[in-house]
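User: Please predict the structure of the protein below. I'd like the answer in structure-token form so I can feed it into my own downstream comparison script.

Assistant: Understood. Taking the following sequence of 376 residues as input:
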Amino acid sequence: MTFDDRQTRLQDIIDEPLNTWLDQAVADGNVPIGYTCSYVPRALLSLDGLIPVRVRAPGAAGTEIAEIYLSNVTCSYSRSLLEFAMDDRYDFLGGWVFAAGCDHIRRLLDNLDYLISPDFSHMIDAPHRKGDAALDWYIKELDILLEKLADHFGIDTGEEALNAAVINQNRLHRSLKEIADLRKQKQPPISGTEFQRIMMASLTVPAGDMEKALREIKDSVARREKQTDFRARLMVVGGNIDDTDFIHTIESTGGLVVADRFCTGSLPGLVMLDESNDPLTEIAQKTLLETSCPRMMEDFQDRLGSIIDTAREYDVDGVIVEHIKFCDIWGIETGLLVDGLREAGLPALRLERDYRQTGEGQLRTRIQAFLERMNK
């Protein structure tokens, strides 16, 4: 099977909430658990037959029913998930786990509990600051989640099971990172759109199936011709992007996305866990300290510095900073990031968008103008 054939297969996998790999896993007795935020540790949802599934609404056409319960000035990601849930598109899930990232997600959980009454739902009250007290708080929150998972699903959440989950997650992240690092090359063998398909599949299918696919992908990538037909190397920063069409539209203008610091991207999503430490403490510490987004108060300068360092590491020509319309936390941060990036000498473009891909022509025009301003 060629690399392009594997890409087609991955696209088929991510085009539906319930893909063929997940369907088989459910038939084999495994339990998918939906989650919405990187502050929900995937390792804890991988224990003893559980499968973490980053919930999406691929191909969402509208949110008319959801808007009866969620205001139309709620972010379209939250509304789209509720629309899919009310349309029974997520009935295969054995439960939902959220992190208290924003009021929009809180209202989504409220409405799911009211309208759908899932068998299992839980909100992690993650702290909005770092530090020793915050870490202690977060560990206690994760302990509460583990206790509820054990009680409801009858699974083993002991130290040995947690150690196994850490090892399995590291194995998957290591394979993904090997492919991600190829984009540092002057002429990468993989585009941003192709890599995003790989990332999204890794967030929505069983890890064992994904690891097998990644071994095949790495072999086929090594035999590919380099990407040469591009005008500029770009980095995309912002909130949730789970639709490869957005990255594809950027690349259709001649930009090549080589770095992706957003909720469903590789930076810093592929953090490695120290397997010699206490597993729960290590999971909590890395998740709280490495997954920095605007919900974390007082961390703006650290985030800006990390983005600047990453842009230079990946030798990018410009940075696109995006956010979903009505997103409170990213809507405020994106303007500050653009100013900070420009002050550091990095060209930056701010884009507001809907969760589902719309206005492709206008988006392409703005990106083309951005490339031209960089003389690319």
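That's the full token string. The chain has two domains: 18-160, 180-373.
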